[in-house]
Amino acid sequence: MIGQILLAAVAVVWLVPLLWAVYTSLRPYAETARKGYVSLPERLTFDNYVTAWTQGDMLQYFVNSLLIAVPAVLAVLFLSSTAAFVLARFSFWFNLPLLMFFTAANLLPQQVIITPLYRLFLELGLYNTQLGIIVINVAFQMGFCVFVLSNFMRALPEELTEAARMDGAGVWRQYWQIVLPLTRPALAALATLQFAWIYNDFFWALVLVRDGDKMPVTSALNNLQGNFFTDNNLVAAGAVLVALPTVLIYLLLQKHFVAGLTMGANK
Q1: pLDDT per residue over 51-68, tens digit each?
Q2: Any transmembrane segments, and where (predicted)?
């Protein structure tokens, strides 16, 4: 009982900033300027959402984010699953060093390599392109995904692939038709996490993209701020709009996401 009360209290504390942002976004700025943000509303309106959508040019930035996040997530999951399949199903002397490399690379701070990476992108023609943002996100997210998927695939019965080999199935068919369908819960959980991480990323776009019309939606919030004045109600409405796609992805993949997080918990 005490544990449930503590969990409920933590959930409420976690939700307060989100609910407060929604509450602020629904109030006119003139009212909060007169009465303060900690006050009861006279009226609630969606005007801030309309203004944020038009003033921040949200549609263009949403498209930019989808053009970056969707291909990056698909590439991360495909490349990670193939690497994890080899690490989990075949015994080579470099299996453990390669897995340690993927794990260690995932812990590397991004800021450490930004200067050589910036020069490399200039030489390769990837600077100021959305393809460059996709490539760098794939490179940095693969380590975590390979680590998770390889552990998940090791838990699958060896007899499945052995039976497939006895029936003449090649390596690709073992991966594509036997192992990959069984890793769907882990892939769904990783897809949700990866989409949220890549969609919310602002660092790589800030450093490796120069033109504003190629920036992701996280940079659109900056368009809602003025040099000498910031309407916090408007910014709150923009932040809620930016957060909606990640919430939608979670709701769509919630069943598989929870299954992926609890995999192996009852063994």
Answers
A1: 988 888 888 899 999 999
A2: 61-86, 98-118, 130-153, 174-199, 234-253
